[in-house]
């Protein structure tokens, strides 16, 4: 399973942006652009230290980045947005959240919602049940797919949420990846 991007090799060049809140990489063969928005580049509701722990994590490139570990909330809401003009036109992109459930994770009986809102007003929404997911390993939650139109200047918005009102804990958010769909 490809949890970040292809391993650093001669086919990709990468650079960290905005104080390691984002990472951009370009496939040297195709020229296609991908981005990783780390947890600090996302809007995390109740993202204070009472509800979330912000910890350093060693990235695949051996860089330290920050991840958000859920202590406890009853209202889960993690949102991202991205300017489409920064992506490669004419390419089908996918957005995935990269998350991990800790061994002691609980409260995930209700499904979480994944939502993608496109500039043209179209919305893709789906449910994912985390209760069945493996513990202690990074997993990808596919939010949706879209085509980048040439000259598009607006933003794509993507959410991961569960507003059921019951307490949950033990979810680690690494970030969200925008990459060409393979």
Automatic annotation (TrEMBL):
What is a single Pfam family found in this protein's UniProt entry?
A: PP2
Q: Which domain of life is it from?
A: Eukaryota
Q: InterPro entries annotated for this entry?
A: PP2-like (IPR025886), PP2-like/Lectin (IPR052147)
Drop me one GO molecular function for this one: carbohydrate binding
Name the UniProt record assigns to this protein: PP2 domain-containing protein
